[in-house]
Amino acid sequence: MTIVAIDFETANERRDSACAVGLAWIADGRVVRRESRLIRPPELRFAPGNIRVHGILPADVADKPPFDAVMAAFLPDLAGGLVLAHNASFDIGVLRASLHAHGLAAPPLAYLCTVQVARRVFPDPAGCDLSKVAARLGIRFAHHDAGEDAYACAEIALAAMRETGAADMADLSRRIDLPVTRVAGGPAPPTRPAAGPISDRVMRAFRPAAPAPLRFTMRGSTGNRYDVTLEERAGAPYLRCTCMAGRHGMRCRHVKALAVGDVTDLLSDNAGDLARVFRALAAVPVASS
């Protein structure tokens, strides 16, 4: 079975805005191959917060191939093997959303999240962010470079195998009681017909149900768990936290972290939902509390 770690960097809050990908292949208990590519996203809209994280600018990718061209050579290994990712819900979400954005079917995938692996094998009150786990294990890498992050992810998985005495990734999954997640392949999105007078009236009359409030569980400095919820106040979106500072109307560190996409202390497995938070907060110039 092909085992490959993957990491994406994105241009903005959209999952289909991949601007870089890194991959690291594992065989015989070690990393045997590494690849890194820049990607031209569908639109050259880069959020300042994303640029601060990875340092990639629109000019860096303006002449690079699009997602489908970059990933064509790698998809067979991803679809036919085991994918590793640190905070896998985000990276798998980017992969599937970007394929759909290019009118391509998402392949069936089997993946293992190394955040969850680290929480079981290398637990620490400081958290299991990629850089923190790597530092504890002595893995040297340049954080937020996609290729380097993929390499660190692979090395964390290998370290977990050694720590548990697992023979392979499947054995590691069994030993730590963390099942491999399997996602069925999805068809390419249908092409929408041009709207005529009747469909225009239907669309104007359609009112979708309001989505459930977004809630994120965060780790406090002493290990307590707090909920940060995206709510509305006077018709404007804001983030409310259940920590002491949040209950007193202050903009606490948990809210500040989520507002810029920092998932270091995120305990709930829904980092991908931050895209909805970014869109809501960007729509109206409000101060989160």
From TrEMBL:
**Where is each SWIM-type domain found?**
226-263
Pfam families the record matches: RNase_T
Keywords in alphabetical order: Exonuclease, Hydrolase, Metal-binding, Nuclease, Nucleotidyltransferase, Transferase, Zinc, Zinc-finger
Q: Where are the transmembrane segments?
A: none
| Top EC class for this record | transferase
Q: Which GO terms describe its molecular function?
A: 3'-5' exonuclease activity; DNA-directed DNA polymerase activity; nucleic acid binding; zinc ion binding
- The UniProt record lists the EC number as 2.7.7.7
Q: What is a single cellular component term in the Gene Ontology annotation?
A: cytosol
What is this protein's function per UniProt?
A: DNA polymerase III is a complex, multichain enzyme responsible for most of the replicative synthesis in bacteria. The epsilon subunit contain the editing function and is a proofreading 3'-5' exonuclease.
Oligomeric state and interaction partners are given as: DNA polymerase III contains a core (composed of alpha, epsilon and theta chains) that associates with a tau subunit. This core dimerizes to form the POLIII' complex. PolIII' associates with the gamma complex (composed of gamma, delta, delta', psi and chi chains) and with the beta chain to form the complete DNA polymerase III complex.
Name by which UniProt lists this protein: 3'-5' exonuclease DinG
